[in-house]
Specification:
Layout lengths: L1 E5 L3 H13 L3 E5 L2 H10 L4 E4 L8 H10 L6 E5 L4 H9 L4 E4 L4 H14 L7 E4 L2 E4 L4 E4 L2 E3 L3 H12 L5 E2 H9 L8 H14 L8 E4 L3 E4 L4
Parallel strand pairs: 1-2, 1-3, 3-4, 4-5
Antiparallel strand pairs: 6-7, 7-8, 8-9, 10-12, 11-12
Helix pairs in contact: 2-3, 6-7, 6-8
The structure holds calcium ion.
Amino acid sequence: MRILIIEDEQKAANYLKKGLMENGFSVDIANDGEDGLHLATTEAYSLIILDVMLPIRGGWSIIKELRDGGNDVPVIFLSARDAVHDRVHGLELGADDYLVKPYSFSELLARIRIILRRHPLQQPEVMRIGDLELDLVRHKARRGSVSLDLTVKEFQLLALMLRRRGEVLSRTTISEQVWGINFDSDTNVVDVAIRRLRKKVDDPFPFKVIHTIRGVGYVLDDKA
Ligand code: CA
C-alpha cells in the first residue's frame, strides 16, 4: 500500500512518513501543492494525506481537481485549521476524513485502516505469493506453516517486494522506499539486508522467491 503525503512542513512530513513506513506502508512526500497534485494524478496511491495550507496550490484546490477529474483515491485532510466550517468544507469537497493538528499518530493510523478497509481493492491486508504470506495488519509473515521472525526493516523490505512482485527493484528504489533515504555511495546496505532476508525467507525452503538480477537489482517472483 502506497500513501502520498502532501505537506510543506518537512519535519512533520518526515515524522509521518517514518511512522507509516514502520507500519508497512510505502510512502512518497510532496512538499508543495503542485508537486502533490502531479504525483496524485500520475502515480497510483491507496490513500493521500493532504494538508490544507500549502505553497503554490492549496489542499482545497487539489481535492477539487482530483474529484472533478473522477479520481476517487481516499483523502484524509490533516490540517491546523480546526474550525467546524473548515472540516465541513473539506468533507464536502470529497475528503474521506479530516484530522486536526496536532494529531495522534495512532488515531491517524486507525482512521487510515478504516478507510482502506472500505476500499478493499486497494488494500489487501494479506499479501501472498506461493506459500509466502504477509499479514500487514498483524505484522506477521510465514511460509506455509512456518512463521518467519522478521525485523521491522525486513518486514518492510519483504512487503515492498511483494507489493511490486515481478518488478525488478533497483537498490535505489529499495533504499528510498524502505529506509527513506538513498544510499548512493553505500548500496551495500541493501545487499546486506537482502542477504539477511533470504536467510529467513528462502534458505530454509526448497522454493526460492527472491531473485537477483545482476547489475539491476532484486525481484520477488514465484517463477524460478
Ligand atoms: Ca501547511
